[in-house]
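Notes to self, Anti-sigma factor antagonist:
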Amino acid sequence: MKLRLARRVIDGAVVVAVEGELDLYTAPVLRDEVREAIRQDGPRLVLDLESLSFMDSSGLSVLIEAWRLATGDGGGVCLARPQSPVARILATTGLDRRIKVYPDVQAAVDGV
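result:
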């Protein structure tokens, strides 16, 4: 499955819904979207991972880059609704201690 992205702004935060698989081939697509979202809509970024079925180390590097870009601009990044396989990777790598994970999008928007 290819990667599909949808961007919207909620309460001053830009929310990017990520659907599909985030791997070596699709990571550049999300990287470009994150850069553009921060540039256009500001550094408060929420990645909605509810429909992300797979993520490898390439996806982790995009999340780290998103965190660096957003915090460098005075904002932040939060993750919302990761499914079990993705949540496991976040926990195993410890990334969930650097980037906050929330059970729903509104909580993530409020937390970013």
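- Strands lie at 4-10, 13-22, 44-55, 76-80, 100-102.
- The first strand starts at residue 4 and ends at 10.
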